[in-house]
Design goal:
The complex is a heterodimer of chains A (about 110) and B (about 120).
Chain A lengths: L3 E4 L2 E4 L5 E7 L5 E8 L3 E10 L2 E4 L6 E3 L9 E3 L8 E8 L9 E2 L3 E5 L1
Parallel strand pairs in A: 2-11
Antiparallel strand pairs in A: 1-3, 3-8, 4-5, 4-9, 5-6, 7-8, 9-10, 9-11
Chain B lengths: L2 E3 L4 E5 L4 E3 L2 E3 L4 E8 L5 E7 L5 E3 L5 E5 L4 E6 L8 E9 L8 E2 L3 E6 L1
Parallel strand pairs in B: 2-12
Antiparallel strand pairs in B: 1-4, 3-9, 5-6, 5-10, 7-8, 8-9, 10-11, 10-12
The chains are: A mainly beta (about 110), B mainly beta (about 120).
């Protein structure tokens, strides 16, 4: 049971490039989330998904896209990378979103856009 | 609307002394409250949560948290700090009235335990 896995661990992008951050979970969780963590700013929710084929915007969705074709995978796509997207990205999952259920986090992807 | 605040960016404590990391919340209904810890270059790890019942919640690594409804607080505590407790700590909340929504996280508090 690997939990939540993320690839790559590190990436450097040039301005205007695109990339996909991969996230997978093997806990059969319905709910998955993408957060970004900026220094001193805590976690901000980018997108989340309540199940395959269903996604919803979080607090800071601009510049990102997501898809959820399977229960296990929730990739985050960056189009036309900008320096403001330099951050650490965390994927998380939970069995349900409401109520007392905690979220399980992956190890993160550190992205630098120059 | 639900929100959570961690009023201290940094907490410094000597090894062996008790530690407290503060968290206050605002919800419309009843709160579900969580503490997470993040070690350098790692993801967030779940420490403990309050759902209902006993106001003192015990969690991993000897941590506990005290729920205080009148003060809308959920402070994280440990009787005797270790250097290895040095990390970034996040408080999170979900309102029981909010339905199927993600957790809302505070900005985090950096704990430094000095030997």
């Amino acid at each position: 049971n690997a939990g939540v896995t993320q690839t790559p661990k590190f990436r450097i992008l040039k301005i205007g490039q695109s990339m996909t951050l991969q996230c997978a979970q093997d806990m059969n969780h319905n709910y998955m989330y993408w957060y970004r963590q900026d220094p001193g700013m805590g976690l901000k929710l980018i997108y989340y998904s309540v199940g395959a084929g269903i996604t919803d915007k979080g607090e800071v969705p601009n510049g990102y896209n997501v898809s959820r074709s399977t229960t296990e995978d929730f990739p985050l796509r960056l189009e036309l990378a900008a320096p403001s997207q330099t951050s650490v990205y965390f994927c998380a999952s939970s069995p349900l979103a409401g109520g007392p259920y905690e979220q399980y986090f992956g190890p993160g992807t550190r992205l630098t856009v120059t | 609307a639900q929100s959570v605040a961690q009023p201290e960016d940094q907490v410094n404590v000597a090894e062996g002394n008790p530690l407290t990391v503060k968290c206050t919340y605002s919800v419309s209904g009843n709160p579900y409250l969580f503490w997470y810890v993040q070690y350098p270059n790692r993801g967030l790890q779940f420490l403990l949560k309050y759902i209902t019942g006993d106001n003192l919640v015990k969690g991993s690594y000897g941590f506990e948290a005290e729920f205080n409804k009148s003060q809308t607080s959920f402070h994280l505590k440990k009787p005797s700090a270790l250097v290895s407790d040095s990390a970034l700590y996040f408080c999170a909340v979900r309102d029981s009235f909010s339905g199927n929504t993600p957790l809302v996280f505070g900005k985090g508090t950096r704990l430094s335990v000095i030997a």
